[in-house]
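Case study 2.
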Amino acid sequence: MTDPAGSCRTRDEHAWRRTALANERTLLAYVRTALAMAAGGATLMRFFGGPSWTLVGVAACAAGMLVGLTGAVRYRRVRRELSEDPARPTGD
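Prediction:
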C-alpha cells in the first residue's frame, strides 16, 4: 500500500527544490546578460572612440549594472519567500 501523506510530502519537496534551482538559473541568466551588456559597452568605448559611441558605451555599461542589480534583488526576494515556505525540505 502506498503512503499518500508521504507521497504528497515528497512531491512538495521536489517541487520546492525545482523552484529553488530555477531561481538560481534565473540569477545566472541575469548575470550573463549583465556581463554581456557591460562587455558590449566597454567594446564600443574602446573601438569606436567618438563621443557619441562613448556615451552609448557608458549607457550600455550602466544598463548592465542595473540588470545585474535587478537580478540579485529578485533572487534574494524569491529565496526569502522559499525559506518561509512550509513545504521546504527539512533535510532529514
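DSSP finds two helices and no strands in the chain.
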